[in-house]
Design a protein that fits this description.
- The structure is a homodimer of 506-residue chains.
- In chain A, 70% of the residues lie in helices and 4% in strands.
- With 506 residues, chain A is mainly alpha-helical.
- In chain A, the strands form two sheets. In chain A, strands 3-4-5 form a three-stranded antiparallel beta sheet. A two-stranded parallel sheet of chain A has the order 1-2.
- In chain A, β4 and β5 form a beta hairpin.
- The first copy, chain A, is extended.
């Protein structure tokens, strides 16, 4: 008897427990989703605003039509207007404008063409009509679908082509009488235009999200990430050599990774930005292409850094005298190029001409030169190649990085002149370094010569010849051109860069 | 008099020339466009077929409705059907199915919800109705617009969310009486379903384009490109050393570049592939994720190769004895890893288990080991470090590449077991090499020992101990594990790999 009771009690309990389990599971899922939503909102509050804007735009256009149903013959027009708002309203102003203009234009052209097709199909009379219409629709749809494969068209007019196909088939196929067709085309156009207008007004009117500004921020951020890595890398490097261990949080060693995959984002943002009117400090024809150029250079640099990033821990040992010299040169290259990149990033961000960058680049090159002379002059010594390798590889990769840093600097200079950046206050000298060697600039050939001597640690003769603004240091048979990155002779600088790179490509 | 005549003649001539110029310009543009179109068609003939399919689908559905206008009340339904076909029909079957299912499901749910909202709004009576409806529409639109920011939802259900917003606003806002609303919702659903069905049938029925197959081909192709680069690189390398010059067409040095940016394509193809039914030799639940994994590893490897690609011409000089030894080891590493990758690629393509890969990987590792011992044992010699650097850097980067090659091999092994690849005929030995050193496999420890001795060029003792399937060679204080890449102990292999990498990360 008791046992039966207990059993029943157990059954009832289980019967109670079962739905509770489900409810709890559901609740957990909800909580999880809420947490994610909060995170998304905190990452970029504009997302929340965007959602509200979409709601507002759709409500607006629906209510407009709701209050004069005379407009919408059986709600058809209403549908087109609402539909237009829903599909046209994108996150950024550029995307919205692009889609809106695409849609409006395509509807206009396709509508006109379709009306023409409709008339043509009616000429021969009833039996032939559907066949002719069918052929028209087939030809237009097939041709435009193929056009959508053209990369240039796809990038900017894909949506227009889609809408063209849509409108043409819709208008030309409806079994209406001609005057009705005209009316339909007209209605469709007007409602589409109203829809586009609403979407655009809300998108621009209420906290607009400018694709151009996002591109600007993204590219500057990428350049800065590279800079952070290089600075952090050199610190890490020193730390490894001193304590024989590295700090745990290597966020700076990972920050650059996003650059490896940000190309597509940059391209689409640039496409949207072209649709946008002037906003803030960006004119209508802001050189967005230049941002793409800088972005791709940053990507190239990031690939090198990806290869570099596996080396900071590759030699936990007491460095020999020559090794520590080499490592000093490496830390120097890395720090200086990192500084240069960060200067460039802040120049882009503040839209001022980068003025204090060149000294850093010159310094990084001098460090590279010193590395070269070190390697040149220390053979026949008791050096263990295997132990020397990591340092050498790091040095060699850093030399590659430096060439890209200078290319980035050049294109930022170009950008600053194309986009009429305002002049920043020039800093004649970069701030002093912990590293032993002085920071010579082009104004001080003697000091530079001393540096080279000090580094190359040899007493051979150094002839310093200054030809048309290039300071070329003849040291132990190989010529290295240390040039001032001047916008006007960008190409020349580049060629010198290439030369240096080949002299240096160890 | 004559002059006037001449002048008039000139005017007339110019008057004639002007339109001709325009026409010619137009004709040139047309010719150019035609040329591009031909190229696009030749690159992938499926594009032409796709365009024809779109035309066919739209014509079909329009004619269906054209012939029973009773169906379409004033062409509204016609519109929905045509619209659905136009927006649902994508290039690949997966994309089409995905959009179709998204659209159908969203329409169904949103329609039902909207009818409910419509009833609710009617309860309080006319004045309050628009306000309530407005609030409903606003809330739904805002909430779902925000949901579209969730990465997972965006990847697969973005379109469904859009259509849900669309349908809900359309149905709930139309100023219809209730029975009309029901009719509308019903109509909309049926027409959308007919549209989706047409699109899907044409997409699958007539030369279907499977996203899954494209992903399969893309990933295999990427792995092959890496292999081509590595093989070509070693040839180029030898050529540079022999003739002091390189051949002009370095297509193999550029083929891999597409890999650097193919991540997004892979991801979207994988997303589409998940919608696709079983086709050809791909089951419904084919492990598409594994393809993504292999793809990203290939990308990682490509970054290293990008860094490597700037080195083949960096040392056009007569190599010293040690240099030529090092270079022999490098060419070996490159050739062997290249062979391994090409084997893997062909294994993926033919969907057979990769069986003749491991020897190549073992060989490449032995070459790496030989390089290490060379560098270890040749100090206190007359070596110019600067001249030695490029070779050393190439070697070090190649060692990194090898680790990725092995990871790729592992994940291909995983794929072959996940996707039940059929067994290929095993090749016990790789074909003989031009390089000096023999190709030992795990069956021949003695030979391997000789190899190591021959390379490391030292007479220290070598103890060979074989423990649980790992052949570990004790040579000059550092342990290197040469392991057989066995799927069953993939993790162990990896850990050994890591160890080897650290021993080796010079």
């Amino acid at each position: 008897m008791e046992s039966v009771d207990r059993e029943r009690a157990g059954l009832i309990a289980r019967g109670w427990r079962w739905p509770w389990g489900l409810i709890e599971k559901f609740r957990d899922k909800m909580v999880e989703a809420a947490r994610k939503a909060k995170k998304l909102g905190q990452e970029d509050p504009r997302r929340i605003i965007h959602s509200l804007k979409v709601g507002l735009a759709i409500t607006l256009v629906s209510l407009i039509y709701y209050f004069n149903p005379a407009y919408g013959d059986f709600g058809v027009s209403t549908m087109w207007a609402v539909l237009t708002v829903v599909v046209v309203f994108e996150f950024s102003v550029g995307a919205t404008l692009g889609r809106g203009l695409n849609r409006g234009l395509a509807t206009l052209l396709a509508g006109a063409l379709a009306v023409g097709a409709h008339y043509l199909a009616h000429l021969p009379g009833r039996p032939a009509q559907p066949i002719i219409l069918g052929i028209f629709v087939f030809l237009v749809a097939a041709a435009l679908s193929f056009l959508r494969f053209f990369p240039k068209l796809k990038a900017r007019y894909d949506y227009a082509l889609l809408i063209f196909i849509l409108t043409f088939s819709l208008v030309s196929v409806t079994g209406y009488r001609d005057e009705e067709v005209l009316e339909l085309a007209q209605h469709r156009l007007s409602t589409v235009l109203i829809g586009c207008a609403t979407a655009m007004l809300v998108s621009i009117g209420i906290c607009p999200v400018w694709a151009g500004y996002d591109l600007h921020k993204l590219v500057a951020g990428n350049v800065e990430k590279l800079g952070n890595f290089l600075e952090g890398f050199s610190e890490e490097y020193v730390r490894v050599l001193d304590d024989g261990e590295s700090k745990d949080n290597k966020t700076f060693l990972l920050g650059y990774k996003s650059i490896l995959t940000s190309k597509n984002t940059e391209d689409s943002l640039a496409n949207f930005a072209r649709w946008e009117p002037g906003h803030g400090r960006f004119r209508f024809r802001h050189p967005w292409k230049q941002y793409q150029k800088i972005g791709s250079l940053a990507g190239q640099c990031a690939y090198r850094i990806e290869a570099l990033s596996s080396y900071p821990h590759s030699h936990i040992q007491v460095p020999t005298e020559i090794q520590s010299k080499i490592q000093a040169a490496c830390t120097n290259m890395s720090t200086e190029s990192g500084k240069a990149l960060k200067e460039l990033a802040s120049a882009i961000k503040s839209m001022t001409k980068p003025c204090s960058v060149d000294p850093h680049i010159v310094n990084s090159k001098i460090a590279a030169e010193s590395l070269k002379s070190l390697l040149e002059t220390h053979f026949c010594e008791d050096v263990d190649l295997l132990e020397l390798m990591p340092t050498a590889v790091v040095g060699s990769l850093l030399v590659e990085v430096i060439t890209y840093v200078e290319e980035i600097a050049e294109s930022v200079h170009e950008l600053s002149s194309l986009a009429h950046f305002k002049d920043g206050k020039p800093e004649p000298e970069p701030e002093p370094e912990p590293e032993p060697e002085p920071k010579p600039t082009l104004e001080q050939p003697q000091q530079l010569q001393q540096t080279i001597q000090k580094f190359s640690g040899m007493d051979g003769p150094h002839h310093i010849i200054t030809i048309n603004g290039l300071l070329s240091i003849k040291a132990s048979g190989t010529v290295v051109n240390v040039t001032s990155t001047d916008v006007t002779k960008g190409s020349k600088t580049k060629s010198n860069e290439r030369q240096m790179r080949h002299v240096f490509s160890f």
